[in-house]
Amino acid sequence: MNREEALELLKRHLKRENLVLHCLASEAVMRGLARRLGADEEAWGLAGLLHDIDFEYTESEPLRHGVAAMDLLPAELPGEVRDAILRHNEANGSTRERPIDFALSAGESLTGLLQATALVYPDRKISSVKVKSVTKRMKEKSFARAVSRECIMECERLGLDLDTFVEIGIRSMETVAAQLGL
User: Fold this and answer.
1) Residue 161: which CATH number?
2) Which single residue of 52, 99, 129, 131 has CA 20 to 30 Å from 74?
3) Is 125 exposed, middle or buried (0-12, 13-18, 19+ CB in 10 A)?
4) pTM for this structure?
């Protein structure tokens, strides 16, 4: 499955624009992490792009999120991509095991914190966001309350400290800033 096919599939199942944008941001971060870690950028990008494909179907049933995605994803999608999509939501009973699993969990969580941080800047641009500002916001539990700090800290399972991880996230989201409106 190529990226264009994946994006078409995603848009067939996600109608809310904010969810599609979240998936695009997650894809960018996953690609940035893959480059940094020497992993398969295409596979990691697909995992980021498709990770919430079932969200509108499972929003009220979080135990099914990720599990229901398995029925929506094509069989030819690499196993590590399918597994990462399943495992990014441990509430469904799965356990993260591989680097791609930790990257997806940490990366998709980081996108929310980065977006929220950008939106409090006067120009509302991701390019203006500073690493120090994000790490400070990490400590403010009331800021971007829904963002899991615990998942973000899984960056350490990838051998990345928080500052490095945030820097990769910012630079990666800059590549799709126009699409994201940031």
Assistant:
1) 1.10.3210
2) 99
3) middle
4) 0.97
